[in-house]
Amino acid sequence: MTFITKPRLRHPQLKTNGIGFTRRDYEGKVSTLCAGCGHDSISAAIIQACFDLDLQPHRLAKMSGIGCSSKTPDYFVGASHGFNTVHGRMPSVLTGAYLANRDLIYLGVSGDGDSASIGLGQFCHSIRRGVNMTYIVENNGVYGLTKGQFSATSDRGSKSKKGVVNTDEPIDLVGLALQLGATFVARSFSGDKEQLTPLIKAALNHRGSAFIDVISPCIQFNNHQGSTKSFDYVREHNATVNRLDVILGRREIKVDYEPGTVELVTQHDGSVLKLSKLENDYDPTDKIAATMRVQMHQARGEILTGLIYVDPQAEELHHNLGTVQTPLNELADDVLIPGAEALSRLNRSLR
User: Fold this and answer.
1) DSSP state of 103
2) Looking at the domain assignment, is residue 251 inside a domain?
3) Considering the domain boundaries, does residue 225 fall inside one?
């Protein structure tokens, strides 16, 4: 067996970020995915986002399930925490880790097979509970590891590499995330790093459930004429609602918002989303309008990309449960196990 490793040589003039790390410090192992896979472009965008945000690698906890997409956390931020779960169970493992240690930054990476099929229930409950996480689905519309069968996100009428037509209705994870209460919902294309990187940066700084659906063509099984998730199809049918950048704020910023100008949405943690709107009538804080816009473009056969919805007043699971600020994994037994009398008081209060 041959292992490919990256050289340890470090050029003395590599650009560093605010905490002295180079972009190379946020890389991982050499990818074993097919050359040209869109998933590698997503990994590159994550690396760039972490570098730009001055994120300390040991503060990142990356989780995944099973599939081509779930292999990718091995290819970025090698010095972070990581856990590869069983098929479809990443959200519950991430939720448990988050409840135990709220001080880490949680990034879940999954695929359309991992999240929209066997893990659909897990996906739904992690979103609706408001787990403070960035949840990225690398969506290629096929089961790449098992030779290209249609996945649950394959569009009705799309063709497989062998010419088979899909007759099932697709699951739209963006529409589902909106319905379930995600407070940050976006979609992008793996080949559009200029749009994807700021979206990831914004999601990592968002407080609450942040979901990004990334169309990532499978070059082996789903990048052909007839596929609705090929490179050519996405480029020809991409409808972008906005372009954004992320500014890490130090003070409150107030502006008068006018159609066609710039809107700054201040997050609870101090970060700011800077939205350069291409459409005069699009407001990403209007959940009903966002849901209608997704369905409208879907009916046209278009792929809506950009920041689709954000709730600037979002809360997350620890706040909703009223837990203490100290991470639960740092509490002593006398606090975690208060004794029989405390349990009796709790039981009496429920009668």
Assistant:
1) T
2) no
3) yes
Q: How far apart are CA 58 and CA 189, in angstroms?
A: 28
Please write the tens of the pLDDT for every residue from 320-344. 999 999 999 999 988 888 889 988 9
Output the pLDDT for position 262.
Answer: 55
pLDDT tens sequence across 85-109 = 999 999 999 999 999 999 999 999 9
Length of the chain: 351
Q: Which pLDDT score is estimated for 253? A: 41
Count Cβ atoms within 10 A of the Cβ of residue 248 and give its class: 0-12 exposed, 13-18 middle, 19 or more buried: middle
Q: Measure Cα distances from 87 to 66, 111, 114, 128 in Å.
A: 5, 10, 6, 20
Question: How many alpha carbons lie under 13 Å from residue 110 in its C-beta half-sphere?
Answer: 31
Q: Do 99 and 317 meet the contact criterion of CB atoms below 8 Å apart?
A: yes
Whether 36 is in a domain gets the answer: yes
Q: What is the pLDDT of residue 257?
A: 46
On whether the CB atoms of residues 182 and 314 are closer than 8 A, the answer is no
> Tokens at residue 343, please?
């349990």
The rounded distance, in Å, linking the Cα atoms of 141 and 227 is 9
* pLDDT tens profile 249-259: 555 444 444 55
Both tokens of residue 202?
């914004």
Distance from C-alpha of 152 to C-alpha of 176, rounded to nearest angstrom: 13
Token output for 79? 């010095």
| pLDDT tens figures, 4-55 | 666 666 677 889 999 999 999 999 999 999 999 999 999 999 999 999 999 9
In three-state secondary structure terms, 189 is: strand
Helix ranges (DSSP H) in 149-248: 173-180, 193-205, 231-237
Q: Is residue 336 part of a domain?
A: no
The domain of 43 spans 23-242+278-321
For residue 189, give the CATH number of its domain: 3.40.50.970
pTM reported for the whole predicted model: 0.87
Burial of 18 (0-12, 13-18, 19+ CB in 10 A): exposed
- Domain count across the chain: 1
Q: At what angle do helices 90-100 and 120-128 cross, to 10 degrees?
A: 30
Q: Is the pLDDT of residue 127 over 70?
A: yes
